[in-house]
Amino acid sequence: MPNPAAHLPFYFGSISRSDAEEHLKLAGMSDGLFLLRQCLRNLGGYVLSMVHKLQFYHYPIERQLNGTYAIAGAKAHCGPEELCEFYSKDADGLCCTLRKPCNRPSGMEPQLGIIDNIRDNMVREYIRQTWKLEGEALELAIISQAPQVEKLLATTAHEKMPWYHGFITREQAETRLYSGAQPDGKFLMRERKEKGSYALSLVYGKSVYHYRIAHGKSGKYFIDDGTKFDTLLQLVEYMKIKPDGLVYYLKESTPNPDMPTASAAPVPPNHPSAKVPRKFISQNSDGYTPDPTGMGKNNWILPMDTSCYESPYSDPEELKDKKLFLKRSNLIVDEMELGSGNFGSVKKGVYKMRKKQIDVAIKMLKSGNERAARDDMMKEAQIMHQLDNPYIVRVIGVCEAEALMLVMEMASGGPLNKFLSSKRDEIPVNNVVELMHQVAIGMKYLEEKNFVHRDLAARNVLLVNQHYAKISDFGLSKALAADDSYYMAKTTGKWPLKWYAPECILFRKFSSKSDVWSYGVTMWEAFSYGQKPYKKMKGPEVMTFIEEGKRMECPPKCPPEMYKLMKQCWTFKWEDRPDFVTVETFIRAYYYSVAAKAEEESEGATKVTPA
Ligand code: AMP
What we know:
It is built from 16 helices and 25 strands. By secondary structure, the protein is α+β, with helices and mostly antiparallel strands. The chain has five domains: about 15-110, SH2 domain (SHC Adaptor Protein), CATH 3.30.505; about 115-160, Syk Kinase, Chain A, domain 2 (Orthogonal Bundle); about 165-255, SHC Adaptor Protein (2-Layer Sandwich), CATH 3.30.505; about 315-410, Phosphorylase Kinase, domain 1, CATH 3.30.200; about 415-600, Transferase(Phosphotransferase), domain 1, CATH 1.10.510.10. It has a six-stranded mixed β-sheet. The longest helix has 27 residues, at about 580-605. The two termini are about 35 Å apart. About 40% of the residues are buried. Adenosine monophosphate binds near residues 346, 462 and 473. Adenosine monophosphate binds near residues 361, 410, 414 and 473.
C-alpha cells in the first residue's frame, strides 16, 4: 500500500515507543540520532523518534488530507522524506537538527502494523465489490490503483454507510430519529445546506441533539474543538467508543430509508458496498469526470471504470463465442482513420457481441499486399490472442473480408509520445510515473508468460485516457518455448536500433531482459515528454555511444529515482540487468510514494468544473 516512508532505511514501520528507544540505544545515542516509525493513532501519520543529550524525544507527524505532512503546529512538507530533510538543516522547534539516521539492521523490513492490514483489506474489498473483480484482475487493480482507491475510500466511504442520510433537513432528521424506539445513542449523519458540510444528529433522553461537523482548512473533520479525523467514517467509529464532547456516544444507527441495501441488509462495517456501480461513467478525454453529486469533488476515472479493463470475454456468456476468426456481419467499420503504417491503415469500428457492442480499432491490410505481410499480421494476431492483461491491447480476433483485418480493443488516446509532447505543460510528472508503472505491469505479465515484445517504445504504448496506458504493436513479438530464455533472430531486419539492447544488435539475441532495455528508453521518452531518443544520432552511432559507456542524460523534469531506474535498465550485460519483476516493484514503490502529490497536481491541471 502507498507508504511514502517505506523505502527509507531509517523507517521501522509499526514499532512501539520503547522498541524505538532500544534501537536508538543500540545505535549509540549520539545527538541528533533519529528514526521514523508509524503512528498508531493517526492514519497515515508517523512519529519521529530522536536523541538529544542522552534523552529521547518523540514527535508525532500528521498526514493532512491534502497529502502534506507536518509536526503539530509546524511547517507542512510534501512527504516524510522531505520533512526529515528539512529538519536535518533546521531544528525549527525540535530539540536539535536531525544529524544521523538510525537505519534498520540489514535484512530487517519495516514492521507491518494493524493499520496497514485494515487499510489493505478495505482497499481490496472496495475494489472487489465496486468493480466486481476477482483473481488476477483484482490483484492488478490493487497494484495499479491502490493510492487512488485509498483516497476514494477515505473521502467517500461514509456515503456507503447505513447511518449516512445524505442531504436531509434538521427537521427530517428529527422525524427519522423519533420514529420507532428512541434509545440513547441512536444517530444519523446528514449533509448540510452548505456544500461539503455535515452534521451528526443524536438521540439522548428522548431529545435529538445536533452537532455541526467542521471541515478545517487542513481537510480534517471535527466537532467543536475535539479530536480531528481524516475521514467522516473514522469520526463515527471513534465516537462509538468515546463521546468526545457529544452528550452521549454513538450507538445505534438509523438506517437511511433511501439506501436500498441498507434497509434490507445492513452493510457490514468496513465493507463499503457499491450501490451505484462505477463502471462506464461517462468520461472526458482526460479521464476525469465531474462528480455526479455536484459536490465539487473530482470523480476520476480509474482503469477499472473503463470497458476495456477486463477482457470482453470475461463474461462466460460471451466466452462461448470466442474464436480467432470473426464474422464480418458482426463488424461495423467506420471511415474514420486512427492511424496508418506500411501495412495499411487503422480504422475505428464497432464489434457486435452476444450481449454488448464494443468499440474497436481495426488494422486493415492494404489490398494487394504480398503473402509475407498477411503472414505477419496473422502471427501478430496469434500472439496477441494469447494475452489477456488490462495493460496490454487485447485482440478480439481477425476478419477476412474486403481486407485482412485485425480487430483490437480501442485505445482512443493515441500513442504516449504524441500525447505527452502535445500536453507537455498540462501533465504532471507523477502522471507519467503512473503510466510507466502500468507499462511495467504489462511487461511483467509478458515476462511471466515468456513472450518477448521486441518493439517496446513510447509510440507503441497507447492511451485509453490520461491515466490508463496499454502496450500495443506485437508485430515483432515472439512466444518463447517453455525452456528458452531468449529468441535468436536468424537475420537482422528493419529494427528500431535506438530501443535495442547491445546483445540484440551484437548477437541478435532477444529476451525479456532486452525488453527491459527498451523499457528504459521508453521511460526516457516519457519523462522527456515525447522527445526523440539519442537526438540526431543514427542507429549505429548509438551502439558506439553505448559501448563507450555513455548513456542519455536525465530529462529536465525527470525525478532522480526514475533516472536511476532508467540507467539500471541500460545495464550493458543482460545478466546484470534487472528483470521486470524488479522494475515493477521499484517503480511501484516510487509511484505509491508520490501518488498523494500526483492527485493534487493533476486535479489542478485537469480540473473539470462541475455542472
Ligand atoms: P501500429 O501500426 O500498430 O503502430 O498502428 C498505427 C497507429 O494506429 C497507432 O499509432 C495508433 O494511432 C493507431 N492504433 C493502433 N492500434 C490502435 C488501437 N488499438 N486503438 C486505437 N488506435 C490504434
